[in-house]
Amino acid sequence: MLAYSFYESDNRVRRYAETLARQGYRVDAVALRKDGQPYYESLNGVRICRIQERVRDEKNKFSYLYKLLRFFVNSALFISKQHMKQRYDLIHVHSIPDFEVFATIFAKMTGARIILDIHDIVPESMPVNLTLKRIACIQGFDTDRKSLNCIF
Predict the structure, then answer these.
(1) HEC states along the chain?
(2) How far apart are CA 83 and CA 77, in angstroms?
(3) pLDDT per residue as tens digits for the range 38-88
(4) How many of the other CB atoms lie within 10 Å of CB of 40?
């Protein structure tokens, strides 16, 4: 499992991971870390790998984007390294951000299957005061972006 979230508070990711662990699968959950949490921990049969600390202190969209990109690079390196040690059969990527799926490129090229679970509801959650033309443009871009991620 790969998610830009805190494992303990992301019920969707946690339920998937713990269900697989109960079925006997080896499950790694690559996620964010809160201050004071250990980097590695086992919880209900799931190995949690907290690769980046996250404090919600973003001043603007660029500081948020920086944290997303940093997580992308850290997760790509972490998953590639782990995949070389012991191959993953499947990597389940939970979005937002959906470009996080590209962090699995090395594993995919060497045989791992990838699932992209798109959690976002954008542009459906856009404010209603946008003009119809802008909404159509945003939806078109959003569809193209999702298509590219899904083709991967």
Answers:
(1) CEEEEEHHHCHHHHHHHHHHHHCCCCEEEEEEECCCCCCEEEECCEEEEEEEECCCCCCCHHHHHHHHHHHHHHHHHHHHHHHHHCCCCEEEEECCCHHHHHHHHHHHHCCCEEEEECCCCCCCCCCCCCCHHHHHHHHHHHHHHHHHHHHC
(2) 10
(3) 999 999 999 999 999 988 877 888 888 889 999 999 999 999 999 999 999
(4) 12
Is 18 within 8 Å of 116 (Cβ atoms)?
A: no
User: For residues 131 and 10, which has the higher predicted lDDT (pLDDT)?
Assistant: 10
pLDDT band per the 50, 70, 90 thresholds, residue 130? very low
Hey, what are 94's tokens? Answer: 């939970």
Confirm if 13 and 1 have CB atoms less than 8 A apart. yes
- For 45, phi then psi, to 5°, come to 85, 0
d(CA 126, CA 59): 22
Give the predicted TM-score (pTM) of the model. 0.78
CB 32 within 8 A of CB 6: yes
C-alpha 49/C-alpha 118 separation (Å) is: 21
pLDDT of residue 131: 47
Please state, in angstroms and rounded to a whole number, the distance separating the CA atoms of residues 121 and 137. Answer: 16
